[in-house]
């Protein structure tokens, strides 16, 4: 049976990732949007209008409200790109700061249409003076959620009602129908066991970096995990409250005395914030995640609070594995072997029926 692994590219256009910063369009400098990390934008980017009081005017209540608001948003890094895109739209269409927060339905509806529009479907005369950098409809919906969360964080109510969202989704479905079938490249084929074998033949798992790549690849494959759940966005982004650490894995045997590994994911997209998702890895033959994990622990000794998937540099410093670094490494290997690309996260179980694709 052919096993699948990684989700094919879903965007219909050549776009940056939702959390990425690969945009060619730039924001105009503003003291209301100071330079800061993506995860801090929702807190540090402000509006000119004073927000209405949401509690009684007492220092105690203001403090509790601020603590509760910050604690509600466990991972704010995904909102940064959406807020940036929103302010670029506002700059292009000369939306005043006073109209950006709170935002009206017509502004957010226009933002959604602008963000998802492919210039090839627009008459040239209508494009005059308008810069476009389209993203997928899925990404647009995530960006609207980012703007909504920004309103909450700055003390404003939700900018869109249920009826407003229905209207925006109606428009987005229309754009999706117009642009259907437009892909920069066909969907990437799933990862197969043959690809993992090629990866193993190339990696030197006695080296810290390669041992980490091998362990995270097999764990993500057999555990059906998103690649973002076994990696971090940057070295400094590691957070023991959000990412897997060495103490989050336990080895044991089941009632049949078969070994397995139990991983407790502190944060996952498929569970509510604050809840733990359990992943179980079982023993396999030549591509065994348990053996890869034990090898990682031997090659890269680390403390309980260190990243689970980590490697050691030349000075012996334990480093978390950065997502893009890992993907570039795996892409390079698989492109050389098979001409395929290793994509970002595991497909759902329906992918098990996909046939393998040969180059």
From TrEMBL:
GO MF term (any one): DNA binding
GO biological process, any: DNA integration
Signal peptide start-end: none
Keyword terms of this UniProt record: DNA recombination
Protein name from the UniProt record: Uncharacterized protein
Species name: Sphaerobolus stellatus (strain SS14)
Lineage: Eukaryota, Fungi, Dikarya, Basidiomycota, Agaricomycotina
């Amino acid at each position: 049976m052919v096993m699948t692994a990684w989700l094919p590219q879903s965007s219909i256009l050549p776009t940056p990732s939702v959390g990425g910063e690969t945009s060619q369009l730039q924001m105009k400098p503003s003291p209301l949007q100071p330079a800061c990390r993506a995860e801090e934008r929702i807190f540090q980017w402000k509006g000119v209008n004073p927000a209405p009081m949401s509690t009684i005017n007492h220092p105690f209540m203001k403090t509790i409200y601020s603590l509760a608001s910050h604690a509600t948003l466990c991972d704010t890094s995904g909102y940064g790109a959406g807020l940036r895109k929103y302010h670029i739209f506002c700059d292009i269409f000369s939306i005043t700061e006073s109209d950006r927060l709170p935002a009206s339905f017509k502004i957010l509806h226009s933002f959604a249409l602008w963000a998802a529009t492919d210039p090839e479907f627009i008459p040239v005369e209508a494009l005059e003076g308008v810069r476009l950098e389209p993203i997928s409809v899925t990404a647009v919906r995530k960006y609207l959620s980012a703007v909504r969360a920004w309103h909450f964080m700055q003390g404003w109510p939700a900018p869109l009602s249920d009826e407003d969202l229905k209207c925006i989704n109606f428009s987005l479905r229309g754009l999706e129908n117009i642009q259907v079938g437009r892909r920069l490249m066909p969907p990437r084929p799933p990862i197969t066991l043959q690809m993992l074998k090629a990866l193993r033949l190339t990696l030197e798992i006695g080296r810290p970096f390669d041992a980490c790549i091998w362990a995270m690849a097999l764990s993500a494959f057999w555990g059906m995990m998103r690649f973002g759940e076994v990696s971090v966005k940057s070295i400094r982004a590691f957070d023991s409250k959000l990412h897997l650490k060495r103490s989050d894995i336990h080895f044991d045997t089941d009632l049949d005395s078969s070994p397995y590994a139990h991983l407790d994911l502190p944060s996952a997209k498929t569970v509510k914030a604050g809840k733990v998702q359990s992943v179980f890895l079982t023993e396999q033959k030549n591509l065994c995640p348990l053996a890869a994990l034990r090898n990682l622990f031997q090659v890269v000794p680390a403390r309980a609070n260190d990243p689970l998937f980590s490697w050691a540099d030349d000075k012996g410093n334990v480093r978390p594995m950065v997502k893009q670094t890992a993907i570039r490494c795996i892409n390079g290997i698989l492109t050389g072997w098979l001409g395929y690309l290793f994509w970002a996260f595991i497909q759902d179980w329906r992918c098990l029926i996909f046939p393998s694709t040969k180059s």
